[in-house]
Amino acid sequence: MKTRRVISILIAAGYLALIFYLSFQNGADTAETSSRLTRFLLKLVGQADISWQAFLRVDHVVRALAHIVLFLIYGFLGVFVLSAWNLRKPAGIISMAGIGVLFSVFSEVGKLLISGRHCSVRDMCLNLLGLAIGLGISFFLTCRKKKNKTGGENKIKIE
Fold first, then answer.
1. Which end of the chain is more exposed for a tag (fewer CB within 10 A), N or C?
2. How many C-beta neighbours within 10 Å does residue 67 have?
3. In the chain, where the domains are located
4. In degrees rounded to 5, what are phi and psi of residue 155?
5. How far is it, in rounded angstroms, from Cα 155 to Cα 142?
6. Per-residue exposure over 10-19, b if at least 16 CB sit within 10 Å of its own CB, e if not
7. Cα atoms in the Cβ-side hemisphere of radius 13 Å centred on 22
8. How far apart are CA 64 and CA 120, in angstroms?
């Protein structure tokens, strides 16, 4: 059990370090990372030969989705961290949400100190949307329906 706890913390910390790294790239580096990802995705779907204006629109969507997906994965990882620490109750999920919200705020406000970056309320909202989806998935994965022996009703049991 102790090994599982250490591994869960290392995975969560490593993932937060990845978000931290991506959040605190300078403007040129983040634009290059985003452009590379957009080019890769366009090649993947067979649309590599598009106009510059179309590329910029797709890149804008990719950047927005990246905010959602990065924090969705963080929220989803919560199920593993919570189960390793036996905290799969609502209080554990609220703790994961609190850490995610603080990290989202910190990553956006911290961009004010980085050349070529800016703080974006829209990006923070996208982060929080991803976090909510990921935590929602985590919450439902940690719940299971159990028949009530007396009335036969379905009740959700929080493990």
1. N
2. 25
3. 2-158
4. -125, 150
5. 14
6. eebeeebeeb
7. 16
8. 11
pLDDT one-digit tens code per residue, 16-61: 899 989 999 999 999 999 999 999 999 999 998 999 999 999 999 9
Amino acid at 75: G
> How far, rounded to the nearest angstrom, does the alpha carbon of residue 63 sit from its chain's CA centroid?
13
pTM, to two decimals? 0.80
Q: Check if the beta carbon of residue 159 is closer than 8 Å to that of residue 94.
A: no
d(CA 54, CA 88): 44
Which of 7-16, 34-43, 126-135 is predicted least confidently?
A: 7-16
Structure-block tokens of residue 139: 């919450």
User: 10 Å Cβ neighbour count for 153?
Assistant: 10
Euclidean distance between CA atoms 42 and 49, whole angstroms: 8
Both tokens of 33, joined, read: 């990372």
Rg (CA), the chain: 19
Distance of CA 15 to the CA centre of its chain: 9
